[in-house]
Amino acid sequence: MSNKLEFYQSLTAQAHALCEGEPNRLAKLANLSALLNLAVPDINWVGFYFRESDSLVLGPFQGKPACMRLPLTGGVCAKAAISGAIQRVANVHEFAGHIACDGASNSEIVLPMRENGEIWGVLDIDSPTFDRFDEEDERGLGLLVASISSLL
Description:
alpha+beta; Beta-Lactamase; L-methionine-(R)-S-oxide reductase activity; 4 helices
């Protein structure tokens, strides 16, 4: 078992403990963004965007002020929301259509959030380090998102 796998298993358990017993989705996402910000190393922004017709609207987050509304016509978050696939970008400056909310961000991972099979939003995590997120991060965060989705 890798250290990252153990880290994400522990993080998932902490996320469950935070969400348990609270019915309000917004309150749970606020605490989850704080937990991820404190626990995941080498990131400069983490947060949720909610899908609203033809855009993604800013939800709970940790980091610098962010873009409040992202069109579904371009960008890493939009690609994840439309395709339903995790987007892991080693260098955001080379991603066609990237929407830069913070010029200090150099890599990004975006995970679709689902309820009953429908994508209702995304979890977006940025890092100032190029190629910060690897396959283990993608797998670990993917399992965390799948696990907590039932609690939201």
